[in-house]
Amino acid sequence: MYNKNFKLIIAAIIVGVAVWQFIEGYIGNGIMFILLSLIFILLYFKNEFILLAFLKLRKQDFEGANKWLDKIKNPEAALVTKQQGYYNYLKGIMVSQSNMNEAEKRFKKALSLGLSMDHDIAMAKLNLAGIAFSKRRKQEAQVLLKEAEKLDKRDMLKDQIKMMKDNMKRAQAPNQHYGQGGSMRSQKRRSR
Predict the structure, then answer these.
(1) Which pTM was predicted?
(2) Where is this region: Disordered (predicted)?
(3) Most exposed of 10, 12, 33, 129 (fewest Cβ within 10 Å)?
């Protein structure tokens, strides 16, 4: 993967060619080259591999999304800061099923680098809450869950947040068994 500044250099060269075309009197060619340079400027701010990974993720193709993300060899050199945040966010989603420690690192790094949409921040915090809850850090999980609930203004994660709250309540409830309790031996004596 090439450096992110390479796209800006290509865009500057294309703008130079567009200016040359305008000077020569080829206005149509100049406009076409300006539009072409805008594509490279857009790809500077929105990385093509991350966009393709999002499209694969939308189709629930985790393996395909991971292939596109793997094409980014050096995220620090190839991506601007927000893109690095989304790179780590997507990588966190990919590894959350298999490696919770790695997923936790990825989500925390994504939040520290910054995500531009509140929904994405809420999703990252919801995932971190689930990881913290599974590691028996209930207070941290509750704080993250409240933050995710505040950020979810369109109620897109309403069901997942409700399910997480229900799971946390069940885990905090005391395990009291009424009726036939005790050991198996005492239950057999009662049945005789």
Answers:
(1) 0.77
(2) 167-192
(3) 12
Q: What DSSP string describes the chain?
A: ---THHHHHHHHHHHHHHHHHHHHT-HHHHHHHHHHHHHHHHHHHS-HHHHHHHHHHHTT-HHHHHHHHHT-S-HHHHS-HHHHHHHHHHHHHHHTTT-HHHHHHHHHHHHHH--SSHHHHHHHHHHHHHHHHHTT-HHHHHHHHHHHHHH-TT-TTHHHHHHHHHHHHHHHS-----SS-S-HHHHHHHH-
**Residue at token pair 């009424």:** 178
Higher pLDDT, residue 45 or 34: 34
Nearest-angstrom CA–CA distance, 131 and 78: 29
Give the pLDDT confidence of 181-190 residue by residue, as tens digits: 555 555 555 5
Q: Express as a percent the part of the chain with pLDDT over 90.
A: 46
